Amino acid sequence: MGSLDSNPASFDAFAADAEGFQPLNADDVRSYLHKSVDFIYDYYKSVETMPVLPGVEPGYLSQLLQSAPPNAAAPFDIAMKELREAVVPGMTHWASPNFFAFFPATNSAAAIAGELIASAMNTVGFTWQANPAATEMEVLALDWLAQLLRLPNSFMNRTSAGRGTGGGVILGTTSEAMLVTLVAARDAALRRSGSNGVAGITRLTVYAADQTHSTFFKACRLAGFDPANIRSVPTGAETDYALDPAKLLEIMQADVDAGLVPTYICATVGTTSSNAVDPVGAIADVAARFKAWVHVDAAYAGSACICSEFRHHLNGVERVDSISMSPHKWLMTCLDCTCLWVRDTHRLTDSLETNPEYLKNDASDSGTVTDLKDMQVGVGRRFRGLKLWMVMRTYGASRLQEHIRSDVAMAKMFEESVRADDRFEVVVPRNFALVCFRIKPRAGMTEEATEAANRELMERLNRTGKAYLAHTVVGGKFVLRFAVGSSLQEERHVRSAWELIRKKTTEIMSGEVSVQ
After folding, report:
1. Closest CA to 333 of 393, 410, 247, 408
2. How many separate helices (H) and strands (E) can be counted in the chain?
3. Does residue 358 carry a catalytic annotation?
């Protein structure tokens, strides 16, 4: 891609000289970044034409790159050449407009620029004093996004009346958001139940729908909850696979009657399999009876709630304890960027605070600043707030809302195409920009045969390199997931994917052998 093959012999940055090794030589930084920017430009101009899924086998890269680290220095152009020739052909191209699998990993010029600048500054803002601007930028960006989501003031660091009781932190992933809030809820429940240390942890119970992301159940184990006390509440078509508050209440009451302590409920706005939306307000009402912590996982669909027509999915959020969403999924901000807000930051910092002598300083001791290290698992942290702020500052709410609405409109168009073809069925109602569909069973077809047909369709589609879809199982049915939202996607890509689906389905039904 591009014209990056300069003559290595003409490159003398690594030649021996009296000045020695200078890894941040300003001229080298400019040269390397110019070459990298050219590579990125070429990549985005050509990614649409690349196979979305690579045709490589496990271990392929070790056959192309040397197995031992080099001893001698080499021109930067050599690394760039190996990147193009060895790494790019093995990439699954999430940036491709033909990527419809999982959920999107969106990106933008503003986010890339913010990430680049933050990486160059390379700050480690564990305390306010370690980098005041990084801390305050993160606080500002979180408060901006909270306002776009119309979160109550109780979740904000700063309000019109001054400093609030709540606040936020930018973490790497939803897994981290779940883990830190589980730990805070665990400690609060132990104190509430009069436990001596962690002796009472075996009585604590946690709850989530069976559609909740698997990372929740992993986080529960990491936080020390007994796997026998992790309740996966069954869902069904009658609630569109959302958590049923009446069923939740019944299970929690049974636990109380058995001497257990309900501790934490995870409600999801936009589940991974089918984009089901748990009723936040009703779940908060149930939790209040038992003083259980409620966390809302809005990792994907939370971004849509900056649009007025989707904001009702967060109704009742003023009664929950924490909420997280990931702008790196659908709000044009590159990985990693998960925003967590809590209604009372002290409940989080009481469990996660560390205060070694070498980090003590007057600003922290004053209590007037936020030390974000005390709202996460680790101590060191990246300058993630810059890219999120740059996205909002550059595009504004109107452009971000336009992006969400465009994706939803394209998903609706795809859904209508599926419904218009009597060979297919939409398995669950579309929420946001995800369509769950399948080849529907014909007369006499068993569920096993229907699954086989849909697996074959998915495999044929993905082998073409012209589209990439993933699958899930909903209500015992194997279904294909068509997720619109890749940053480069346009209506023509969705239409092209639909035509490919129709073509491959015709081949399957007529018994044709797939030809790439």
Report:
1. 393
2. 14, 13
3. yes
Q: For residues 310 and 336, what is the distance between their CA atoms, to the nearest angstrom? A: 24
* Alpha carbons 477 and 387: distance in angstroms, whole number: 40
Q: Of 264, 358, 395, 468, which is the active-site residue?
A: 358
Among residues 347, 341, 316, 315, the alpha carbon closest in space to that of 327 is found at: 341
- Token output for 485: 């939202």
Helix (H, G, I), strand (E, B) or coil at 302: helix
- Token couple for 117: 């600048």
- Look at residue 17 in the predicted model and tell me its pLDDT: 55
pTM, two decimals, is: 0.92
Task: Kindly state the tokens that stand for 458.
Answer: 């998915």
Rounded Cα distance between 441 and 449, Å, is 8
Rg value, the chain, Cα: 25
CB neighbour list of residue 66: distance below 8 Å, 6 or more residues apart: none
Query: Which of 408, 412, 458 lies closest to 438 in space, CA to CA?
Result: 458
Strand partners, 425: 438
Task: Quote the CA–CA distance of 346 and 29 in Å, as a whole number.
Answer: 42
Count Cβ atoms below 10 Å from residue 199 Cβ, excluding itself.
9
**pLDDT value of position 194:** 86
CA distance 406 to 411: 9
Residue 363: the pLDDT is 87
- CA proximity to 385, closest of 336, 341, 342: 336
Say which DSSP state 273 is in. Answer: T
470 in Cβ contact with 104 (< 8 Å): no
Q: Tell me how far CA of residue 154 lies from CA of 127, 168, 269, 279, 394, in angstroms.
A: 23, 11, 20, 20, 27
With contact defined as beta carbons under 8 Å apart, do 135 and 143 qualify? Answer: no
Nearest partner of 335 among 484, 155, 219, 487, judged by Cα = 487
Cβ atoms 320, 264 nearer than 8 A: no
Q: Give the span between the Cα atoms of 207 and 231, in whole angstroms.
A: 5
How confident is the chain (516 residues) per 10-residue block, as mean pLDDT? 45 57 95 97 97 95 94 96 97 97 96 97 91 94 96 80 78 96 96 85 96 95 96 96 97 97 97 96 98 98 98 97 97 96 93 90 86 90 95 98 98 98 96 97 91 97 97 96 97 98 95 59
| Separation between Cα atoms, residue 138 and residue 125, nearest integer Å | 10
In the chain the domains, ranked by start, together with CATH numbers, are 123-383 (3.40.640.10), 394-509 (3.90.1150.10)
